[in-house]
From TrEMBL:
Residues 136-161 are annotated as: Disordered. One of its GO terms (biological process) is selenium compound metabolic process. Residues 148-161 have a biased composition (Basic residues). It holds the Pfam family SelP_N. This is SEPP1 protein. Residues 1-161 form the Selenoprotein P N-terminal domain. It is found in: Secreted. Keywords: Glycoprotein, Secreted, Selenocysteine, Signal.
Amino acid sequence: LCQLQASRLENLRVKLENEGLVNISYFIVNHQGTYSRKKINRLEESVSNYITVYQQDEQQADVWITLNGNKDDFLIYDRCGRLVYHLGLPYSFLTLPYVEESIKIAYCENKCGNCSYTEPDIDGVCENITKKADEKLEEVEPTPSGQHSHHQNLRRHRHHH
């Protein structure tokens, strides 16, 4: 994860927290290579203390190989620790909406049922997110005037494990 992508992750973290999505854990796993190891201080400076930057030891098994991923991937887990999304390039670029939308879906879907990790006011937060998404769609989608309306669906890469 480069410094620019890290600072964008910090901005996304703040945005989501301001929208009411709280108690989300963010981790950056730095590559094992010498170049990446030398740049870890800059990487850590790109984010707040709310995002953990983890430096892999050169002697350990590469985390990305263990997770069947690549260094620029985003792995989104639900509150129960289950992998909900695994986004690779180009879907992991934070200038695109996929990571943000995946986090929101993982946060709001209640797949694991009632548990102690659920925020008390999650329903209100998620209702607002859904309403804002619907309003954006209404702004973007042209109203058909005798023509066929073409809807584009957000392509999601879901991996259940």
